[in-house]
Amino acid sequence: MSIWGSLIGGFVGFSFAGPIGALIGSMIGGRISSARRAGFQKSFASSQQVFAIALIILTAKLAKADGQVSKEELIAIKNKLKIPDHEIDQVGKIFDKAKEDSLGYEPYARQIAQIYRSNPAVLDEVINILFYIAEADGKVSNSEIAMIRNIAKIFGLSENQFEGIRESRKSSDKLNPYIVLGCDSNDDFASIRKKYIKLSKEHHPDVLMNKGVPPEIIEESKKKMRAINAAFDQIEKMKS
Fold first, then answer.
1. Is 101 helix (H, G, I), strand (E, B) or coil?
2. Which residues constitute the domain of residue 201?
3. What does pTM read for this prediction?
4. Per residue in 190-209, pLDDT tens?
């Protein structure tokens, strides 16, 4: 079942405060109550809706980071989030509202970091998809890189983790396997393998879906897994 049906309506009756709650509340005629926060946080379906809306908001902020929103970026957002034609108007309203509001991206990033503080792999996936959106017009501007890097910092990701995500976007024949796995060429093979296993478990598509990443968005995590596997294969051949 698609997450896009009643995406905004799915927030009614649940607790959601902060900038995301205010933004959605302004679209449905009032601030969403904060009285049922615990129940909301435990809802699996709602966690997928939260992820989707959080991603729409951040992509809206990212799309204008270099001063313009390109047609290619809008198409990438539609394709990446697998938004059906009959839901595009609803999603477009969220996108436009986030793009036009007076808040910067930082308050939204801080709230997303709080929501997924116990699921860092989900936060990794947000950064991964933001890179995908930024790449849509053929190049990633310095302002876009700076914004994504700062979002990663707000998420609590280290510089090594940020660079690992960025490096994994490259084709397997061009990536630096040590950067992807967050290790050093001088590390022994046992410790490298340990990092590889940890990343493989964290970024497995089934694990991400269980943590709230919608199935519509999981394809990009499969690419990340392929990059992780390719990096380990390269190192294993070099170390053998």
1. coil
2. 9-239
3. 0.80
4. 999 999 999 998 888 888 88
